[in-house]
Model the fold of this input.
Amino acid sequence: MITDSLLKTDGTVDNTEQAKLDSGIDASPRQCRDSTQLSIIDGLAKARLDTKEQQATQSASSSIATLPFEILSHIFVIYTYADLCVEFKLPSSSAPHKSRGPLHVCSVSKQWRHVALTTPSLWSSFFVRQNVDLRLIRLWLERSHSHPLALGMAPASHRDATPEDFRFTEAALLLFTTQLHRWRRICFRFQNSHAEAFINLPLSTATLLDEVILSINRCDPKVSTSVFAALSACPSIRHLTWTGNGKFPSIPKCTLWSQLDSLDLHCSLSIDECITLLRLSYNISRLSVWEMSDGSLQNNHPHTTLPHLQKLILHGCIFDSSKVLDYFTMPALQYLWIDHHPIENCYNNFRALLDRSHCRLEKFKLVDYAIAQSDLINFFQDPLFCSIPRLYFEVFSLFIDHHACLATLNGNNPSSIPAFEVLGGGGISIYWGEQL
Done:
């Protein structure tokens, strides 16, 4: 082919032959006399187009090849970053890397393999599903060198697990624990028997461990309590996410709570337990409780100031969650989301919290399908609540006259008029600013 004649032995384009080709094409239309010559000219033009496309491809490839080592290494780390937050419902900043991504990078070229093998952070995260080859875990641990580790484990469910699955999980956990001193983030789903093995680990040597996400199915309450006590041996834990079936285990009085910066609970928590937990976690800045229960207040609690709490979510309440708020002052509070029903005089309770805390809320969300219209109107007419940039209410439309609510708003400023959105099941959302 004409294009092949323009290539050197190394596959690059011969510039001299390219110049001859270009001059021949440009001059030939004035000299051609028959169809044979025209067909030759067409072939030459196509050859010129092909060679220029190849030059563009070579230029792009050479541009990638000239990237500094550090930039190429960073690109690889970003590429292998997996969306494992889907598995654990986590923010992407907490998700470990895609397990097999580094192997894909190594298979592209000799240069990319060299970069990958000399980038320990590329191999510092590993997510284990059931019956992964243990040699693969050893490979990752070896190639990560001394880099801090982010590890995930989700074995087969208790119902589907076989004796082989249990043996594999124990072997994988044993491999992970050989590098306990390098643990930085862990995302583990355990059965009760594996949780007992976790408790017996020398966690005091996990001095780098910063974030713990644990989900324990069929877990005995005593085992759950022991897990919290065992985690107290880790001096650096700042973020804890706990998912368990049933009620929250009894709260051990340990140092774990006072060192936490964020706590995310996906289990049933009573009002007394919530108050106790907040009092023990006096340095916390973010607390989310996604399943509240038991509306009876059994104990007396002293009033406590939480100087660092910025975000509080109490979700799925079946009691008046303002009982929790009544025991605290929160001067740093910026985001408050309460989901509960029913509650009486909720406006007065929330207003009292803001008055004694002197905080400046940026976001306020209230989900209450039994709220009285008078309470809702009080929110609308209060300048303090109307000054919150993002304000959201979700109520039951049967109890709310939209026109009456709008009529209470003072002035004709469009920014003071909320938006309405009809929800399923007779619900309606009323909000200022962006939806929460």
